[in-house]
Structures are given as structure tokens and as C-alpha cells.
Amino acid sequence: MKVNANAKINLGLDIVSKREDGYHELNTLFCELKLHDEIDIEITEKREISVTCSDQNLSCGSDNLAYRAAEILFERYNPGSGVKIHIIKNIPMGAGLGGGSSDAAAVLKTVNSLFKFNLDNDELRNTGAKIGADVPFFIEGKMAQAKGIGEKLMHFEGCHLPPMLIIKPEISIPTGWAYNTVDESKNVFHPDIESLIRAVKTGDYEGICRYAGNTFENAITERFPVIKQIKSRMRELGAGTCVMTGSGSALFAIFKSEEMVLNATEILKKEDTTLKLYPETGGSSL
Fold first, then answer.
1. Paired strand residues for 214
2. Which entry of 37, 134, 142, 231 is annotated as an active-site residue?
3. Is the dihedral of CA 53, 54, 59, 63 positive or negative?
4. Is residue 206 within 8 Å of residue 5, measured between CB atoms?
5. 228 catalytically annotated
6. Taking 80 as the threshold, does the pLDDT of residue 42 lie above it?
7. ∠ at Cα 202 (200, 207), nearest 5°?
């Protein structure tokens, strides 16, 4: 079975507090993108899990989230056969776009279907939470507000995202380091997630641009000025806003039209060949 594992952005991300167990309470708005990894999953006679990947930089062992997704189901149900998983990576790693978590969710859903384990979405989300905080969102995807450590989800349907451009600079940012940096920072911004959700529901472009934001951004920008440089350049090219997603390093720039997205893409291709650019056009409906 061939399946797609879509990327996500955090249209808004607020780190509410740090818990005693070391985890952080979040309030975020996840939005699924068209950008995706491609995954080929095949049942094999030999009872083993095999993961391969088009990107040699990605580990394919037990620390790979797609491997862990298959493993956790195999440990629970002990099927008599195995599974071979091949991942074609299109979502950049270390970007805050959720590629690994999306791969894991896609494997959970597909292995569940292929082996007829008959888990419903609630059970798949609970299983995904054991793999990673973002995995539960990707079980249904589309758009959802997430609270807690990401496991408390409220999905929204029928919402439309403005055209946007995803920009990934060369740098990659470790998630653990990013959280530690925010914990130590005195320059912490808390975006208004509830106002952002209202703007998205009503299709208020100006409101989306006003309220989209990320608590990580100020602290990360101090260490990686390229983030600020990209934000500034995107505004010059007509973006209503440009915000970092997750713990970085990718950003999304929101535009009023697809033509503006494509124009900005062509200009940036000529200006900086180190940037990876992913236009999100065609009327994303979530």
C-alpha cells in the first residue's frame, strides 16, 4: 500500500507553561499541508520490521518513528508476518514540519488496516501519543487546536488557508535545545491562539496575519539571525506575515494570492540557492 504522510505547520504556537515532569503545556493550531512524504508499506512473510529511506541521513533503526509505530503494534498483537516500509522523504528534517511524526501516524493507520487490527481513531491517537507529541494530530490531520503536550485535540473542518510559501533555511534546530532556550529566555511572546482560530474560521486574512505567532521565535531568532532575515525579506516581497513553525527552522509566509506566492518563490530561488522552498497553493481546504 502506498500512502502519503503530509507535513504540518503550527499556524500559532503558545508555550503556556513548563510542567514538573519536564514537559511543556502547549496551546497550538496545527494545519496540515500538501507537502508530503511518500511511504510504501508491504507485508512480508518473515516476521520482522524493515525500514528504508531515500534520505541516507535519516536513521532507519528503532529510533525512527515509523519503525517505532510498526513495532508498538507488533509488540501488542504479535502478527505472524512482518512489514517492509520504504519512505521517500520530501519533508525536510529539523524543520518543525512534523515529517517524522506524520510518517509514524501513516504507518500506524496503514499497518492497522493491512493487518486488520481494527483500532479506531481514538485508539490510534492514544498509541501515537506514546511515540511522539505530534503523532496524534496526524491520525486525522486537517486542522486542529492542540493543548496539553499535544494530545488534547479539537478538530475543525471547512476552513481555508491563505496561499503560503514554506521556507527552510540550511540550519536545523534540535527540539530539546529550543525548549531549553525558551525556558531561559526573558523575551517570551505568547500569541493569542483563540483570536487566531476565530480569524481562520471566518476567513479573515488580516486577522490570520495579525494573530499567527510562535513563542519559540524570539529566543530562536537571537541565536539564529537568518530567521529574522527571512522574515524581513518575505515582508518585502508582500507577505502579510512570516512565522516560524514548531521549534524551527522552517517558516511560513502568508500571501493574499497564489500569484504572489509564485513570484516570491521565483525571486528567492535566484537570490539564495541554499533555501528550500515549498509553495502551498491551489486552495488548501481543511
1. 13
2. 134
3. negative
4. no
5. no
6. yes
7. 55
Active-site position among 8, 89, 142, 168? 8
> Using one digit for the tens of pLDDT, what is the confidence trace for 244-261?
999 999 999 999 999 999
Distances (CA, A) of 27 to 31, 232, 273: 13, 26, 35
Q: Is 14 a catalytic residue?
A: no
- Cell readout for 60 is 532507519
At 87 the three-state DSSP class reads strand
Cell of 167: 521556507
Question: Per-residue confidence at 266, pLDDT binned at 50, 70, 90?
Answer: very high
What is the pTM assigned to this prediction? 0.95
Helix intervals (H) in the chain = 65-77, 99-114, 121-129, 135-140, 175-184, 193-202, 205-211, 216-223, 225-236, 258-271
C-alpha cell at 12: 500559532
| CA distances from residue 122 to 41, 119, 152, 166 in whole angstroms, order as listed | 22, 8, 11, 31
The 8-class DSSP code of residue 285 comes to B
